[in-house]
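To: structure subgroup
Subject: Chain for Friday's discussion

All,

I'm putting the inputs and outputs inline so they're searchable in the archive.
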Amino acid sequence: MASKLDGIGLTSLDDLFKTDAERQAEQGERVQIVSADKVFPYARQPYSIERPTPDLVRLMDSIERNGIAEPMIVRPREGGTYEIIAGHRRDYCARAVGLKTRPVIVRECTDEEADILVVDYNITREDLLPSEKARAYKLKLDAMKRQGARTDLTSRQVGEKSQGKTSVQILAEQADENARNIHRYVCLTKLIPPLLAKVDEGTLKFVPASDYVSHLTEKEQTYLALIMERDEVTPSLDQAKRMKQISEQGKLTDQVMDTIMGEEKTPERKVVIRDNRLQKYFPKSYTPQQIETVIVRLLEGWHQRHKQEFQK
């Protein structure tokens, strides 16, 4: 007759005398200190880590004085090394000031989960460039589609199905962004680097770049970048639209582009708002581009509410 004790595991002395905190730490995530040379950036990281911003300067100063206060999130790689999921700027600042170790929380995650988390940990930053948003939105959308359009791991809808919504609609809700703008940002990833840089600088406007210029071939974009540098011009919305239409017909030659870009533009209707009237509405750290983005977003909401009036 089998003993009633068969199959029952006995608690070891070590386990018997562990504290509740020690048992919880073993079951969950805990902070570890690892060597800096074992920590590497995430291969598909979409943000510009080294771009100098006031926030980066403050972070570097804080890390130099106090070390890394918030542990980095990493995932394990082969050979006992780790890949950063959250904390790329902390790692960059720590390297700049010469710190030899990193506080990390090791988290197992798939490539899709990692792509989504890398985007989500920084997507709400206010100083993001259009190119950074473009790469981030595309990275997350691609990951969501590979997952079967499930919601991300950090949202309140963890594990729920998308309930018929497209990946773009889900991302728009999570990022508090207009779904049309999500599409536009993703289109920016089709621009050649010199033109994408001009979008970041503000010399190539967002809508012409995303809706029209991004659909030109690489050769056509290259020649357009040359014209913009040579003649110090930038395509208007109408010029960009016509170039896209002619490109789709296979007739956008260098000569045609020269003709279109050489046209005299109709003077734009400009409204100038003095800085002293805006100061009370925005933090001092906001750049002109950030202020413009906020104003345009508010105007889009206002326009939607009054759309019927405009159609009368």
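Points worth raising on Friday:
Confidence is low (pLDDT under 50) at residues 1-13, 16-27, 149-161.
The CA atoms of residues 108 and 230 lie 51 Å apart.

D.
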